[in-house]
Design a protein that fits this description.
alpha/beta; Rossmann fold; 5-stranded parallel beta sheet; 18% strand
Length: 130
C-alpha cells in the first residue's frame, strides 16, 4: 500500500486531502506543523510527501530542503499545496526541491491525478519537477 505523509495545519483541508488519498487506496499519515512533518518524514517509509508552504514551527519550504538533504528522502516525491499561488512563490517551492506545486483551492480529481502521476513516475525511476 502506498504511504503518504500530509503536512497541513488547517484541519478541514487536511481531512479533505486525507479522504482524496485514501479513496485512491493510500495510507495517509498526518502532521499538523513543519517540525512534526520533518520528524515523521525522516523515519522513512513514505512514497510521497504533501506539504503546506506556511506552517507553524518550520515552513514547508524548510521541511522540503531538509528532506532533500537526507539520503532516505532525497528522491521522495514532494508536492506543495498552498493558497499562495504567485509565480515567485511557486518558483520558491520548486527551487526548494518540490516536484510539483498545487494552489488552493484545488480540484480533488486534479490533486489525485498529480499525486498518483508522480508516484507512477517515481516507481519508474523518473520523477521530474514541474
Amino acid at each position: 500500500m502506498t504511504r503518504i505523509l500530509v503536512a497541513e495545519d488547517d484541519h478541514d483541508i487536511g481531512e479533505l486531502i486525507r479522504l482524496i488519498l485514501e479513496f485512491g487506496g493510500s495510507e495517509v499519515v498526518a502532521a499538523r506543523n513543519g517540525v512534526e512533518a520533518l520528524k515523521i518524514a525522516t523515519r522513512g517509509g513514505f512514497d510521497a510527501v504533501l506539504l503546506d508552504v506556511r506552517m507553524p514551527g518550520l515552513s514547508g519550504l524548510e521541511v522540503c530542503r531538509r528532506l532533500r538533504a537526507e539520503k532516505d528522502t532525497e528522491n521522495t516525491p514532494i508536492i506543495f499545496i498552498s493558497a499562495r499561488g504567485q509565480e515567485s512563490e511557486i518558483h520558491a517551492g520548486i527551487n526548494a526541491g518540490a516536484n510539483a506545486y498545487v494552489v488552493k483551492p484545488f480540484d480533488p480529481d486534479d490533486l489525485s491525478a498529480m499525486v498518483y502521476g508522480l508516484l507512477a513516475q517515481s516507481h519508474q525511476g523518473r520523477v521530474t519537477r514541474h
